[in-house]
Structure formats: C-alpha cells, structure tokens
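Subject: mismatched residue count in predicted assembly?

I count 604 residues in my input, but I want to confirm that the predicted structure covers every chain. Input:
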Amino acid sequence: MRTRKKPLVTTIAVIVALFFLFPTYWMVSTAFTPSGDITTSKYDIVPLALTVKNFVTAVGKQGFGFYVRNSLFVTLSALLFAMITGLLASIPLARLRFRGRKGFMLLILVAQLAPFEALLVPYYLFLRNFKLDTSLTGLVLIYFVSTLPFTVWTLRGFINGIPEDLEQAAMVDGCSRWTAFWRVTFPLLGPGLVATSVYAFITAWNEYLYAFVILQDQSKYTLPVWLASFSTNFGTDWGGSMAASALFTVPVLVFFLIVQRNLVAGITAGAVKG
Amino acid sequence: MTASSNTAVPARAHVPAPRRPAAGRVKPPIARRISVRTVPYLLLAPAVLALLGLLGYPVVSVFIYSFQNLGPRQINLHLTEWVGFANYQEIFGDPDFWTITGRTLAFTAGAVTGIMLAGLGCAQLMKHTNRVVRTILQITLLLAWAMPIVAVTTVFQFIFDQNYGILNKTLVKLGFSGFANFDWFTTSFSTLTIIAIIIIWQGVPFAAFTLYAGLVAVPGDLYEAVSIDGANAVQSFWSVTWPGIKSIFMLTMFLEVLWDFKVFTQVWVIRQGGPDGGSITLSIQQYLKGIAGNHYGVAAAVSVVMIVLLAIITAQYIRMLVRSQEADFA
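Triage response: the counts match. Full output below for your records.
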C-alpha cells in the first residue's frame, strides 16, 4: 500500500511545487525577455532570447533613484526606531517580574493584531493636520508603530530562549543585573536581533496602502507605489514591469532566506504576517 | 527563616541581586529600591507611549469621527459638527454597503478556505514525500512567501493579461481558441476569484509550514495503533491527525481571517475596485468614501464596522492563543 502510493504523492508534490514556482519564474524570465518577444502571440514559456534591456528601462525610468532612496529611508528609519524601542520593552517582559506585566503583554499582543488598514481616515487626517502628508516622516511613524508590537513580542521570545542561569552565573561573579544582561545575554541575542529586524524591514519595505494614500507628492513615492503605478501607466511594457518587480524583490528574497529558519516559530509565536 | 531579607531571595526570583554581597549593607537604600521597582516601567515607557499615541489615539479618533460630519470644509475651518448616528444611518441605509459587506465576507471565507485546505494539503505532501521532493517543495513555497505583495500582484496581472498573458496563450495552444484575447476581469466574480488566487498563492506557504510543524509533532505510534485497529486513511486523519493539529489549525485559520478580511493592496492594484465597483470590499470602500470622496465621517463609520468585526475575531484568537500557550504567556 505504502510503496504504491509513493509515486503518486511525489508527482502531486512536484506539480504543486511547479505551481508555486511559476509566478516567480515567470517574473524573472519575462524580465530577461526582449520586449519584442513579449508582445507577440508567440508561445515562449522559455525565453527564446535574453536581454538586460528591461532592467535598463526600469532603472532608467524617471525618479527611480529617488524611489529607492525614499524606500530605504522610510524602511531603515522605522526599523531603527522599532528595534531600539522594542528591545527596551522586551527586556522587562522577558526577564523581570513586576505589577501589570500581563497587562503589558496583552497590550502588545492586541497592538500586533490591530487593524491598521481600518485606520486610514485618522492617520490621513492627522498627517494632513501636522503637515506631514508631504514628507516621509508620517510614513516612518506609521511603519514604526506597526512593526513595534511584533518587534517587542519576537525579541521577548528570543530573550526567553537564552537561559537566565547564564546571567545569574555572571551576577555571582559580581556583575550587576544590568551588566550581566549586557555582557552575557545581549551578545547571544545577535541572531534574534537580525531576524527581528529582517521581519520589520520586509514589512516596511513591502507596505503599499499607507504609502499610496499618504504620499500625495510623486517625488516622495516609495518603490511599491512606483511599481504599482508602473504597471498602470506602462501597461504594455510587461518586460520593464517584471524587471522592476524583480529588482524590488531581490533584497526581500535575500533577507528572507537568511532568516527563514526562524520564520515559522517567530511568526506563530508572534502572529504577524511576513 | 531568620536570615536577612536579601539572602532569603530565592535563586530564580527576578529581583536584582545585591551588587556586592560584602558591601556591608543588608538592604539597599529606599531610593534605590524605588528606582529598581520603576526600571521595568521606564524600559516599557517608550513602547507604550508610542503605541498609545500612534495607535490608541487613531483608534479612538476613528470612533469619534464616525459621529461627525467631516469634510474638507469642516477640516479647513476646524469645525466640529456632531451628527449622532447619521453616518451609520447613511451606510446602513445604502444597499451597496450590504452588497460590499456580503462580498467582503464571502471573499474572506473563500480565500481562508482555500489557504487552509491547500496549506493542509501541502503540509501532508511535505510529510509523506521523500526528502529531496520535500526540500524542493519547501524552497518553492518559501519563494512564494518571500515575494513582495505588489510584485506578486503585478506578475499575476501579467499572467492574466488579455493580450499577452501566458494563461490565454496556453489555453489557445491547448486548443481553446476562444480564449484568444479573453478578458478575465469583466465580471465581479472572476476578478475577485483572481484576487483570491493571488492571496491564496501567497498565503499557503505560511499555513503549510505552520501545519507541517503541527503534523510532525503528532506521535507516529498513534498512527500505528489505529492502523492495527484497521483504520483507513480518512479514519486515521480524524482520529489521530486532526486532534493533534486542531489547535494550531484553528489559530492559523483565525489569523488568516484577520489578514484576509482587511486586505487592500491586491484588490486595489488589480482593478481599483472594478469592474464597475464589482470588486470593492470594505477596506476599498473606506478609501473611496474617505480619502477619494472626502466624506471622512462616513468613511470612519465604515472603518468602525470593520474594526468591530475584526475585534470580535481578535478576541477569540487571543483567548485561544492564551489558552494554548498558558505557561509561556504567564
């Protein structure tokens, strides 16, 4: 029974794998296909000729450098704030016993599931009110607060994973509580810090809704907004569009593969979409 | 019992140990004890203030706005016009609103069902196939998971493109010549189905990996025991697998409901709510009413409806999460 079932399972698994691979393959393959070949009725599931011209087109689009810079600025600023604030908050939640601890944990958990998509109107009005709707600052604030709960929750998990006995051993040797944390636990937290910042990076880097709603000024667009308008404005230039998508995907993919081992554990414990 | 208070602290208590046991002081001075007590709150303060100011305040505001007549005039002149439940009466009296709500619920149900079934299927495949095929499957799932939403949406737009899309080309090649230049986005149903396919394609990896982790944790000897009792595959699924993965399955499903109900990007990028408003969901509607239509009060009322529905689901989810990880949470 078992041996007869195996080939069937393998076949299905391979078909499923192809289904999940295809769009990514198709993006990359189209990006390298000459645009003349794309806009014909030729059937070309494997590109017949290769070119990098689509990438040149995408990068050469007006403002591309600005959009990259905007995206990096917004993402990295939000990331920095979220990591610092998140690390500070995760320490007491993981290591200290104090009144109201459970309440704070619940606050973080609820904040993590908060429906940011349903807060469009207040964010939009606040930022307009404070004249932040023309700058990237508003976006930094929104990305900071939307990645913060997740950062706290995940870092707390990573700190919990480092045995406290190590700190106690250091304290027996005369370290203060704080020095023990700083000298013993913090260095061991390295992988946790990397993983957490990668999640935060990906979340902010990919965010479309608020970037689209809040940035009225085209020179302030981030890459997702630019990419979405690319396919609208240059509808038939699928080669350029796919090349732009591929360029946008590369940093995410690299970072994602670095931390994929922690992904399931981190996300189920923390409950945030990657 | 008579030992001084600071040596009576149990070894694992989370109280700072005395800095120098030989320093001579039995108790730290009061000021220092107070400052030690405030340390956790000081460390939490930046995060809590950020959450209250940047998240709590908007949430409160959206409720307040939903009872106001708020348009460009009121904003520019800083007027506050309370209108009671008028905004709610307006949206509840609008037949479109009920169509949109029903559509959003049906769409969420479809996407979540698709993700959970396909995710469970993929998890079973991972478990039952050999190591090489499993690794291949896992890598392709990871790639799908890693793709940025806007990039995925753009690729699917191209795949379903009327003139140059590979889907139509393939169908024509297979002999279905009617699909030459076939437009997949003419009806509300087909547009929403394609959007759901995008969301399912991207949502399955998370569900699959989570459920796979649940599946491999089910003890193998239980399967042996039921197969000795003569159970077939279906029976062994319901008597062994399902009880083992039920809690992780439900948690994942609730998360998917939370995520898919409020989805904006895929819907908007594909057709901006079209054709003819046929793919407008609640999150699109609040954008159209509020940001695009300048009826901020009405849009806030739509947001409140979303928040209330999501809050009910979130509360259920948190209750389940706390129960399933009681030791960890406490």
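Chain B has one domain: 86-329. Marking this ticket as 'not a bug'.
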